[in-house]
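Take one protein record:
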Amino acid sequence: MARSKKSAQTLHIDGTGSSRATRTPSPSASRTRSPSSPESERPVGPLSIAVSSADRDVVKVNNANATELKNACDDAVKRYLSRPELFKQIYLHTDVRLGLGWLGVFIAAGTALYGYKVDFEKSKPVVTIGLVVYIILTAIQTLYAFFIEGNIIFVGKRKSFSKRIITERIQLTSSTLPPSTKTPSLSPANAPSYQLAVSYVRSTNGGKSLLAKGRTKSSKTYSAFFDEQGTMDQDAFERWVGELVEEGMDGKLQ
């Protein structure tokens, strides 16, 4: 029984008449297990999910106003990436700013009401405290928007299952770049540019195992997405955003 468990041996007789034994590898030994690579577990990207033209509304802005152009592009990014098949948008920064803003409004309203109903001399300490608290909350809100939120326009998260639970987190920031040459007249050659940066992380095991990490950045002039009437070419813009996001999903670093 012990010999039957060993690998089989075959006798070969050479020209000298001597025999030698060669070991025939067992079928189980020839099989190797290839671990699942992060590429094989890569979830679908935005380019794999088509957008119907019927789902789009016409976007038209004043193409001489850089602020309107940027806001239109930011909104298009959010609509494109927050589709049900893609990422669930996280509103943490918006919630923090709204919370600080509403808290300041309540404190200001309560302080004003207290000062209205109570004698001026008696209400001065409370009114002073309320004013100081309101100023502090407003300052915190401003500092939070400038230093923490910054140029972030979209934060999303997605969970999928491919032999294990995979968690993706994506963050996009945008800004307007001034034209390279300053001339009195506006033209596609000297139009301002829309810059978009993507930060992407894919992990598993509760974030303990990193599968992929990418960081990409690109910019294009607004004239590449808006015509002379200010109508947005959403198909071209979404294709550009999708390519940039998928580069990040593939682990490209810039």
